Amino acid sequence: MVISSNHYNSNEPDVVVCGMTSNTGNPYALPIRKSDLEHGNLYEDSCARADMVGRISQQKLGSKIGKVKEDFRIRLIAKVLEIIG
């Protein structure tokens, strides 16, 4: 899941991402459901892993499957900040 801002993404060759999983047992996993999407679709309930942040070249990104609502993005970034405190 891309978590970097549009401004960052338009000025850098990479994007900042966090991992996704369907395993809900991790305490740093933030559940994401279809209702958390502004548009797009999830094939199953998943989690964004706030403890798996990295970057990837924009050229290596796959297809876009949706966009999360702003409130979900804020909760995810808060979870990341909780970890790096």
Could you list some keywords that capture this structure?
two-stranded antiparallel ribbon, SH3 type barrels, 85 residues, 3-stranded antiparallel sheet, alpha+beta
Mean pLDDT: 91
Count helical runs.
2
* CATH class placement: Mainly Beta
| CATH domain topology | SH3 type barrels
Domains counted in the coordinates: how many?
1
Radius of gyration: 13 Å
Provide the CATH architecture: Roll
**For the largest beta sheet, what order do the strands appear in spatially?**
1-4-2
Helix content: 10-25%
Biggest sheet statistics: 3 strands, antiparallel
**Secondary structure category:** alpha+beta
Which residue ranges are poorly predicted, with pLDDT under 50 across at least 5 consecutive positions?
none
What is the molecular shape? globular
Which percent range describes the beta-strand content?
35-45%
Number of strands: 5
Order of helices and strands: HEEEEEH
Cα separation of the termini: 21 Å
Describe what this molecule looks like in 3D.
The protein has one domain: Roll (SH3 type barrels). Helices cover 25% and strands 36% of the residues. It is built from 2 helices and 5 strands, in the order αβββββα. The strands form 2 sheets. A 3-stranded antiparallel beta sheet has the order 1-4-2.
Question: Layout of SSEs?
Answer:
Elements: H1 6-11, E1 14-21, E2 29-32, E3 37-40, E4 46-57, E5 66-68, H2 70-84
Antiparallel strand pairs: 1-4, 2-4, 3-5
